[in-house]
Amino acid sequence: MRYSWIPTIVLHLLPILSVLLTWNKPWPAALERMVRVQVIASVLYVPACSLCMGLDWPGFSLSQFGLADLFAPLEGEGLLLYGGFLVTASAVTALAAFLRRRRTEA
User: Fold this and answer.
1) Longest Cα–Cα distance in the chain
2) Residue 57, SS3?
3) Which residues of 47-84 are buried (b: 16+ CB within 10 A; e: fewer)?
4) What is the DSSP string of 14-39?
5) Residue 10, pLDDT score
6) Cβ atoms within 10 Å of 99's Cβ, excluding its own
7) pLDDT grade, residue 106 (50/70/90)?
8) How many Å apart are CA 28 and CA 35, to the nearest integer?
9) pTM for this predicted structure
10) Could you give the dihedral angle defined by the CA atoms of residues 63, 67, 70 and 71, in that order, rounded to the nearest 10 degrees?
11) How many Cβ atoms sit within 10 Å of the Cβ of residue 26?
């Protein structure tokens, strides 16, 4: 199984979950929580992807995994790939915030 997709899916589903959890809150509090959750998820995204990619290795153990391995995906084209995922997750967050705001104004 490709475990490396799990953090990407979670990163893109968090804005939708944040909208659902803040549906009855006032708009400023909801926006603050949505942005805070997405920023924390974005910071944890690259190390989580690295750990999940490690799960794809045969015979994986955490003792083989070093600090340099956590940020190894940020080298070369990995920076563009993971940066692209972070940009699309930010776009999903902006869209969710826009839809949540329209619900408040209606």
Assistant:
1) 55
2) coil
3) ebbbbbbbeeeeeeeeeeeeeeebeebeeeeeeeebee
4) HHHHHHHHTTTS-HHHHHHHHHHHHH
5) 93
6) 13
7) low
8) 11
9) 0.81
10) -160
11) 10
